[in-house]
User: What shape does this take?
Amino acid sequence: MIPEFGNFAIIIALAFALLQFAVPVFSSSRGLSAGSRKPYGVALDASLKHAGMTDFLVFGQFIFLSIAMLSLIICFITNDMTVIYVRDHSHHLLPFIYRVSASWGGHEGSLLLWCLIIAFWSIAFTLFSNKNLPHSLYLKILMILGVLNAGFITFLLLTSNPFQRDFPVDLVIGNDLTPLLQDPGLLFHPPSLYLGYVGFAVVFAFAIAALLEGKFDKNWVVALRPWIIIPWAYLGCGIVLGSWWAYRELGWGGWWFWDPVENASLLPWLSATALIHSVIVSEKRDVFKGWTLLLAIITFSLSLIGTFLVRSGVLVSVHAFANDPARGIFLLAFLSVVIGGAFLLYGLRIHRFYQTPTFELFSRETALLINSVIMLIVMATIILGTIYPIILDSLQIGKISVGEPYFNVVFLPIMLPLLLLMGLAPHMQWKQQPFHALFKKVRVNFLISFMIGLFIPYLLGFSFKIFAYIGISIGIWIILSTLQYAYKFRASLTYKHWAMIIAHLGVAIFVLGVTINKSYSVERQIKMSVGETTTLAGLPFTLSDLHRKNAQNYESLVADFSVQNKFIISTEQRIYKSHDQTLNRPGIHYNLFRDLYIALGNSFDDGSWSVRIYYKPCVRWIWFGGFLLVIGGMLTLFARREKHESI
Amino acid sequence: MKVFKSIRFIIPLIIFGILIVFLWRGLFLKPNLVPSPLIGKSAPSFQLHQLMEPTLKTSQKDLIGHITLLNVWATWCVACKVEHGFLLKLSNHRDLMLYGLNYKDDATKAKEWLNTLGNPYQMVAFDPTGEVAIDWGVYGTPETFILDKKGIIRHKVIGPLSMEVWEREIQPIIRKLQMEDA
Assistant: This one.
């Protein structure tokens, strides 16, 4: 009964989404016949009545999709094995909390979540959008969101219905959720990622609406800004959570694997970062309008392309969801129409936004432009690396797998100038920046940071390495230069400036974390039995105890390591009953400056175990930096009411 | 210049169009189907160190005398991690030898990989430069060659092995090879 109920709710939501698109069109055609002609776009000022109607439709769509999601969760909680999706992802032994998260752990459920989140952003838009936004723009944005979600709900119903049922004769116990995904991280990682991914739909709708109108003004930019930054922050949060999950679950001590699915989430994030910087210029100086529109379209396009890459099965990945060619074809057709249409519209209309540049070559505008160009280049190299296997294969040149080596080689050199620029740009003036004045402002900092960079490794007890030296110095350069900026304008700092300061410091801490972790991590692989001791990074590790443990849906072997007799690190090897699959849960002891990370390997006949021990300096800084970026982004939300800005 | 000015706004659309063409073709690619010119020929000769016992060497002669699966893998290859679980199951198979060819990799990382995830291979040849893999016509990782008792390459699978691939592609060939011997 419940599955049918959920299914029905999805169908009603589809009707609401379609009406959300159709009602304003209908009202506008009447508006046209009444004589209020507008050359481009649809004359939507018809009446506020239709706005009320549209708001109602958005609301209804959200309610019915929530009902559907809730029904699915209930199916999981009650373990309704007649629902195919539940049978494939649940198990009668699966703990309650993972049964809830399993409802978005597979393709069908995560797609339902996707649709629900579009509805969520649409309703958020109707409730909180800037009141200065012209009414016609407002309705157009909702129309575009309506037609987008109608597309996704259709996709859900036609190819990936989570409520599909099947009544088997035998009692079924279910296929269970993959053990790797049974982690608290999974509770928040996908929803957070999706809130980001999908949120860019609003940005996209803003851009298309502006192109349809043939113009945009400052109000448009001011209204747009929160709809970029909130999804950007959610996406960043999702990426950080995902990286942290990989670190704890995969047992390799790594935090980023350049896996196609990770790349798919990084791409829109990079493009959105570029967009945020471009929007700042558009808002402040009324330039870069075309560039801002282009980036807005690209950002959402990357969300869609990322979804396609993950869902269609064109790439092999650890995240691979179930593959079905029909899904790939539908998604590709859908994204061709949506994105292709958007770019076509862009090509036809953008000349209306053309302006003569009103700034000198050497200015903050240029610096921010370079920033977004570099971001786009980085984005392009990652997308190239990700789909390179497909390109070669379809040209029948060969088949290859692009791995970490490629990305490290291309990624780092491009990021270097960007990070250097990050220290410079805040000190540059709008319109025109005399070179000598800038040089005077930053030279001391620059020298100091490259001097401190020399000493830091010695202070921490590490040897000198050229890569580490450059990385650490640049990290300090960004910190010093950001603090100098904060100090100089300390009297007049607004939330927006604080946002920038915190976000940039986050980047600096991230850079320091990555550099130090990459350069100075040590690891040892050793065979140990109970009572034996080994030393790594000056710390003695003793395998003090081995014992068995039973949990609800797995049994495990626990190894306790005592370090310096001060604390104990427990690491587990789990065997999941329903999968007959082993999973290593590394044991981690952390503090601000280092992680000690232990994972079990396989056992030997004499009762000893192969053990890997890692000493990972500053690895937490990577995620801490990431969260600072998120916090920085969130701070800009308070900037709404601030009127006067001087800097 | 004038031409450029009028078409430049269409550039994003063009790039996107090219991307779509590739993605579209990607949908219909069969990643597991690549004809290898080596099928039906003897294994190319090679001399490599063994990964786990670096003092010992191995050559194509070690592939003779039994049905062999030669699996090309690397630690930087995510798909290799995906198939690893299946390889472990396969290592108990009585009728064949599972050999590994570690491709363009770091010896320490590769050993660590095997020690942690388990070692399904009877032996692993270590090919850090990828020279031998070129002779074998390896496009990337993972790839798996099936060789008969005489050391002749009979089939090549591209992409990760799984129960499905095993039942569809490999098992029939192995049955056939066993029939030939009988």
